[in-house]
Design goal:
By secondary structure, this protein is α/β, with parallel strands linked by helices. It is built from 15 helices and five strands. A five-stranded parallel β-sheet has the order 2-3-4-1-5, sandwiched between helices. Helix 5 (about 135-145) links the parallel strand 3 (about 125-130) and strand 4. This is DNA polymerase III subunit delta'.
């Protein structure tokens, strides 16, 4: 009943990034002081490192090289570490939702496993993803284990939405919060699958790995990004006639949902942010990394004050968007203000 989904095998070689060094130190500290609890709740956004630390912590428990002399650091190269990494260890069970939720049958099977001794050791580890997606029956069933844990058993519960959990489950776990990944870290993760220009923009729009991945996969996102470049690439600006035509013929048809329109404005904002970076010599911070020369050329025609005014206009448009202003009117007014700038 391993229920391993194969996600761990796709993780980067350096599974714990720099901002999680303190969490590795925390693992070493609790193992050195023999203060391992029976259940931990890992809380953080997708891509924040919850699964990576769960893997690291499990390897630290089973790796023969993880001793007091090595600060309980797993070698990650031995047979035990490799079996854990590939989901082949009989005393470690990785559980993920079956469909949209964790079902009562999954938790019951897990409970049966709880009652058995370890196959190869006296330790057993259960890593449960998206614990917030449990059905009510499943949550109540899991609560029984958390109230009366079996000796030598460790449960690592992973969630992005702590607020959806039963308070009784939260109270019986030690909670660990994970900061969201930086744009640079997220770009690295995304670029393993998606083109770098798309990964860069998506990573600066959301810190959620799953949402950023969906953006990179969405055809409309790539097209609206290209439209922003087309709209703003001319050294002397864009004509209102061309701009209005693009709004009606391409921008609005690509962003039928209000959240899509908001993301398109975010892409526009990132372009202006890059223009400002160009003015102050921070080209290495560009989001539109494939448009470096075009951005530099465009920035030559604008003062820092005018770019700042453009940013204010875009932020104002984003605010009015949520006040349910007519989208076409909003974009046309924004284009006029940017043209005047």
């Amino acid at each position: 009943m391993n229920n391993f989904k194969g996600d761990i095998m796709s993780l980067p070689t350096e599974i714990i990034n720099e901002q999680h060094d303190r969490l590795k130190q925390w693992v070493s500290r609790i193992l050195r002081k023999d203060r391992l609890a029976h259940a931990y709740l890992f809380v953080g956004r997708s891509g924040s490192g919850k699964k990576e630390l769960a893997l690291y912590m499990t390897q630290a428990l089973f790796c023969p090289s993880a001793t007091a002399q090595t600060e309980f650091t797993p070698c990650r190269h031995c047979v035990e570490c490799k079996r854990i990494e590939h989901g082949n260890h009989p005393d470690i069970h990785w559980l993920a939702p079956d469909g949209s939720s964790l079902k009562i049958e999954q938790i019951r099977e897990l409970q049966r496993e709880f009652s058995y001794r370890g196959v190869e050791t006296q330790k057993k580890v259960y890593i449960i993803e998206h614990i917030d997606r449990m059905t009510t029956q499943a949550a109540n069933s899991l609560l029984k284990f958390l109230e009366e844990p079996y000796s030598g058993t460790l449960a690592l519960l992973l969630t992005e939405q702590k607020q959806r959990l039963l308070p009784t489950i939260i109270s019986r776990c030690q909670e660990l919060k994970f900061p969201p990944p930086s744009p640079k870290q997220l770009i690295h993760r995304l670029h393993e699958t998606y083109p770098l220009p798309l990964a860069s923009c998506a990573a600066h729009i959301t810190a959620d790995l799953e949402k950023a991945s969906h953006l990179c996969e969405a055809e409309w996102f790539a097209e609206i990004r290209s439209l922003m470049i087309q709209l703003l690439q001319e050294e002397t600006g864009f004509s209102l006639h061309q701009g209005f035509a693009l709004i009606q013929d391409r921008w609005l048809p690509l962003t039928k949902e209000r959240d899509q329109l908001d993301i398109s404005l975010e892409l526009l904002l990132l372009w202006y942010q890059d223009l400002l970076y160009s003015k102050v010599g921070l080209e290495d911070q560009f989001v539109y990394i494939d448009q470096t020369e075009r951005l530099k050329k465009r920035a030559m025609y604008l003062s820092k004050e005018k770019i700042a005014e453009g940013i204010e206009h875009i932020l104002g448009a984003k605010k009015r968007l949520h006040a349910h202003v007519n989208p076409q009117l909003l974009l046309e007014q924004l284009l006029i203000r940017l043209q005047e700038g």
